[in-house]
UniProtKB/TrEMBL annotation:
Residues 146-295 form the AAA+ ATPase domain. Residues 317-374 are annotated as: Disordered. This is Stage III sporulation protein AA. Pfam families: Spore_III_AA. PANTHER family: KINASE-RELATED, P-LOOP CONTAINING NUCLEOSIDE TRIPHOSPHATE HYDROLASES SUPERFAMILY PROTEIN. Keywords: ATP-binding, Nucleotide-binding.
């Protein structure tokens, strides 16, 4: 709460306890209503802290409040946060990520930085100890006494980072949660934490519990971080969040051919989305991942489904008709999984429209030409 200017903090502190305890996002938009999300719901916040669905009744932050917010989240040094501003977010103490909206400034067609920042999305980071306990047994490679190369998949805000954080803790602590793995040793885990969300490191020291045998490269790009890990930290398992660039795929291939297991996440809804993204499609087609974990969420309840590489390839070759795009989190559960017999079903029948594999092309590093300021 100390991140927020006094007038805004007083509003947030008056919110009902049920909203504060399950708070996920606080959206501050200049001259527009203050919004929060909690569970699978959203609401606008009145000046007295009560919640409403009517945006015209909500507290409206002005220009001065937005300026004060920017000063606080950059620790009164916008220039020191220039690299984070270029990427569109700032990660603060505790692993909370603040997304920024404003006017982008371009340099040779690439985003140089943001200015006239008028929107903030504060995403609340929380550790869920034990979250990975029911998932990890389905990822084990019993012959090698470790995990299979695994990709965790879901749309945004479904729990990928929370899950990967607790899986890293389990692997580093030797909490395999399977009777056949009781005598297995723990593993050396290397976390490449590009957005400082997995470990929430402060001065290089994780503030979230990642177990006793975990090393973290904080604020390091994924591809470079994986290479650095391989060269100097001898990890047995590398953990990365939100892969999707060609250089990420190259680094992952380098890791698996060095005998290191990979645990990664990516934005997608299902197998069809995985095979629709060129980088993920290439990794999947090459059989890089031995298991996929698909997450869906309704309120506080998170469902998971584990699919083997073989099952993923079979699903990708079937045909079905679907609506492109993720289902909103507040939609009825059945609309998310139309073919599931019941929420407790352990097997989910999913088919994917057959299509040619996309061609992988390397993007132009310089980008398109354009105005310096757009």
């Amino acid at each position: 709460m100390e991140l927020f200017p006094t007038s805004l903090r007083l509003v947030l502190e008056r919110m009902p306890a049920f909203a504060r305890e399950s708070l996920e996002e606080i959206r501050l938009r200049e001259n527009r209503p203050l919004e929060i999300s909690y569970g699978s719901r959203y609401a606008f916040v009145r000046e007295d802290g009560t919640l409403t669905e009517q945006h015209k009744e909500a507290f409206v932050p002005g220009r001065e409040l937005s300026r004060a917010m920017l000063e606080r989240v950059t620790n009164h040094s916008i220039y020191a946060a220039e690299e984070e501003l270029r990427r569109g977010y700032i990660t603060v103490s505790g692993g909370h990520r603040i997304g920024l909206a404003g006017r982008t400034v371009l340099d040779k067609g690439l985003v140089s930085h943001l200015r006239d920042i008028a929107g903030f999305n504060v995403r609340i980071a929380r550790a869920r100890i034990g979250f990975g306990a029911q998932v990890l047994p389905g990822l084990l490679d019993f012959k090698a006494r470790t995990i299979r190369h695994t990709l965790i998949v879901s749309p945004p805000q479904q729990g990928k980072t929370t899950l990967i954080r607790d899986l890293a803790r389990c692997l580093s602590s030797g909490e395999w949660n399977h009777p056949a793995a009781q005598d297995w040793d723990s593993r050396k885990v290397g976390v490449v934490d590009e957005r400082s969300e997995i470990a929430a490191s402060e001065r290089g020291v994780p503030t979230f519990d990642l177990g006793p045998r975990c090393d973290v490269l904080d604020a390091c790009p994924k591809a470079e971080g994986i290479t650095m890990m391989l060269r100097s930290l001898s990890p047995e398992i590398i953990v990365v969040d939100e892969i999707g660039r060609p250089e990420d795929a190259d680094a992952i291939n380098e890791a698996i051919h060095a005998g290191v297991r990979v645990l990664a996440t990516a934005h997608a809804k299902d197998i069809a989305d995985v095979f629709s993204r060129p980088v993920l499609a290439k990794l999947a087609a090459d059989g890089v991942f031995g298991a996929y974990v698909f997450l869906s969420r309704s309120g506080k309840k998170v469902e998971h489904r584990i699919v083997t590489a073989e099952e993923a390839m079979q699903e990708s070759s079937r045909r079905y008709s679907r609506t492109i795009g993720a289902t909103p989190r507040d939609a009825p559960w059945e609309s998310n999984y139309a073919n599931v017999k019941s929420p407790s079903s352990s097997s989910v029948e999913v088919t994917v429209k057959s299509r040619p594999m996309p061609v992988i092309r390397s993007p132009d590093a310089r980008g398109a030409s354009g105005d310096d300021d757009a």
